[in-house]
């Protein structure tokens, strides 16, 4: 009986081993149909990848073209902006010049209106002399000459101490000197 049991166990192990070997062989065995099926699937996947690759390449080309167009458009717009900025700067300079001219013209108009008013007063006989006597006129003339001399001295001193302003102050100094000469 022990011997029969040992034979039964050995036989069972042989069956199990044989079954395992058979299952391993079944798994590894590839039929021609399976191979062709897998081959067709792989070819289809390769075609799909090639197709997707071509589409991506086409899209990249289109995007590069769009980028070139955008770049050239941007350059044109930058040039246009530069020209507009230059025009704007020129117009601003003209505006400042015209505003300064307007102020100058307004001050001239006011001065001319005042002069007209004084001349009209002379014509109408309403003008009153500021200095009624020669002596008071001479005294005022001396006082103004003294002030001009003092101003000339101050300007000369400023020109000596600050030579960088000499050019700007030279016109004023010359004008004062020309007013002092007839004295």
From TrEMBL:
InterPro entries, sorted: CCDC40 (IPR037386)
One record GO biological process: heart looping
Origin: domain of life: Eukaryota
Gene Ontology cellular component list: cilium; cytoplasm; extracellular region
UniProt-recorded name of the protein: Uncharacterized protein
């Amino acid at each position: 009986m022990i011997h029969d049991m040992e034979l039964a166990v050995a036989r069972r192990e042989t069956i199990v081993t044989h079954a395992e070997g058979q299952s391993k062989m079944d798994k590894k065995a590839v039929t021609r149909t399976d191979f062709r099926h897998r081959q067709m699937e792989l070819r289809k996947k390769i075609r799909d990848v090639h197709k997707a690759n071509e589409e991506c390449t086409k899209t990249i080309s289109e995007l590069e073209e769009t980028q070139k167009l955008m770049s050239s458009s941007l350059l044109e717009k930058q040039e246009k902006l530069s020209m507009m900025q230059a025009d704007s700067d020129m117009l601003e300079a003209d505006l400042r010049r015209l505003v300064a001219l307007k102020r100058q013209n307004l001050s001239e108009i006011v001065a001319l209106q005042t002069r007209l008013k004084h001349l009209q007063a002379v014509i109408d006989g309403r003008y009153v002399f500021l200095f009624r006597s020669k002596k008071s006129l001479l005294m005022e003339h001396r006082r103004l000459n003294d002030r001009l001399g003092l101003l000339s001295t101050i300007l000369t001193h400023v020109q000596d101490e600050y030579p960088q302003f000499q050019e700007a102050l030279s016109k004023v100094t010359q004008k004062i000197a020309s007013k002092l000469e007839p004295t």
